Fold this protein.
Amino acid sequence: MSAIENKNSGLFIANAFPFAKHIVELSNFIISNLSEKHQWIAAHLRIEKDLLLISDIKIMGLEHYAESQLHCIYACMEAKQKVSAMYLASGLSDEEYAAIEKEIVEKNGNIMIYNKKIVLEGCPDLKQKFDSLCLEEQALVDWLVCIHAPYFIGPHSSSFSYLAGYMRHYRGYHPDAMELFPTYQPYWDMWFPCV
């Protein structure tokens, strides 16, 4: 495939690929709600227990793997400064989410942490729609929020984060509005022709 064909394919996928109306409605509500915050970011944590099937992560331990991702997120937040709110996209249980939220707040002071369930609690009708979704559809809500966030952070090794970055790239978001760790951004223009 030529560079022009790659570019045209990327533009089509990023801008013309349709999403179900009920998924878009939920993600738009979350984005609108978070947009009332002074400066918010979206972060994806890929630390679900199924990662233990990967031998390197099993050896390292899921807790250490989670800490390494959080460390990268903290570094990005520190560099951005004045972040008032974070949307945390993850498939964590409520207990796991509460523990991560506590750690982030302890390390970053006055930041408010949100996830899809917390934001949707303010609208019972949408919460009911969300609760009726399968896990993949719920993840798609997270994904669309991450694509449209003013700033996005996520692990490059996760297809969720990588594809969110791909969509942001082809939708014309400035490269400084995203951090995939470890950093691969210098290669994006080579891998995916600029818009």
